[in-house]
Amino acid sequence: MFDGALVLLGLFALSFGIGVVAPLAGVGGGVLFTPVMLGFTNLHPDLVRATGLAIACYSSIMAGVTFFKQRIAPFRFILLVSTVLLPSAIVGAQAGIYVTALGKWGQGLVRASLGVLMFFVLALLLVKRLDWPEPRCSSRVVEVLGLRYIYFEKTLEREVVYCPSRLGIGLPLLALVGFGSGFFGLGAAWALIPIYNLVMRLPLKVTAASASASLAIADTGALWVYTHSEKMYPELVITAALAVLLGAQIGAKLLLRARVRFVRWLILAIMAFNGVQLLTRGLAEMGITLVRII
Amino acid sequence: MKEADSLYAEATRRLLYAAFIVLAAALVTHLALSPDALTQLEKAVRGEVSSWAPERFSDHLVLYAIYFINLVVPIGLVYILPTLYRENKAAATLTVFIVVLLILEILGVLRA
Which residues 25-84 of chain B have a CB within 8 Å of chain A? Predict the structure, then answer.
């Protein structure tokens, strides 16, 4: 009983810490939570992914509250992308549960592929972005859904016109992101930002807000998959989700005050180590290698 | 009259904060009423638990709290549907598609 209380307290502290440092690295809490828990604890992958997904989903709802009200994230655009993200996240969640049900080998596969994905996350975090990409608003979809937006940008002292371009390339890419989010139980702003900014040519400020608010609908659907499959562990979900969200509030404030360059690089290095560790542990569980770091 | 995005933001904000309070209250009640809940958590952390299903009243309490927070988005979307229909019929159609998909998932129809 006493040990259990310590476990709960430790879980809260760890999740809170993840919540604080994640914004400093420029990622969401869900992106750090799932790999850290899968890499360094013995918790069952399904329980970890359900919790990571809950963190990503609730964070995204919170972001939507702020960004839709301030009109930084275009709501009808989010609805459009959600029609792709939602079904793919549901399929991803079902696939994830199916793969871990294969036993040790399946769990190893999840860990190893997440390890590889961590390096992809790091690479995308380093990709250069465009502040004001040139919009091409000639698409019929843009016209019908009214996706041509104008807002006044204070820093430029002029109105900025923008609309999502190249939907034919962007939307299929979003299907991959939705699948990954449901499969791994991860937030996916790191993947959405380059797609929205470099492929769909949304301004960087709009991109960042839209990416944060995009996964609320999709991850809600994926969460119900985990809930129906009895893969939600209440103490874990509630404690970790509340702690990460609380920590993220503090992390966001620290981001404005502290010099975070060193901290950011430190966290990115930890993510890289976490990636290697997940990969080696996963491959060892699959019986491919014997070497395992931690 | 408020636009759909503002209405959605307002509705989800209220529901989300209510859900956080319900979640915290349900967790405390669950821990108080289920003496073995922490022992079970220890087992889960050791990797001995792979799924969880409610057995007692307090288990259902905590499960319903999770249901509630998972319903924030669908409720918000249904709430703004009439306003969205007046603003843009195509966007309202997309929302209907999303809501139907979510309802099917919530009812367990889409389980593989």
Answer: 26-27, 30-31, 35, 37-42, 44-47, 49-53, 59, 62-63, 65-67, 69-70, 72-74, 77
Binning pLDDT at 50, 70 and 90, where does residue A85 land?
A: very high
- Local confidence band at B112 (pLDDT 50, 70, 90 cut-offs): low
Whether A254 has a pLDDT exceeding 70, the answer reads: yes
Q: What angle do CA A277, A283, A286 make, to 5 degrees?
A: 140
The pLDDT of residue A260 is above 70: no
The residue written with tokens 């967790």 in the block is: B27
Task: Answer yes or no: do A68 and B105 touch at CB < 8 A.
Answer: no
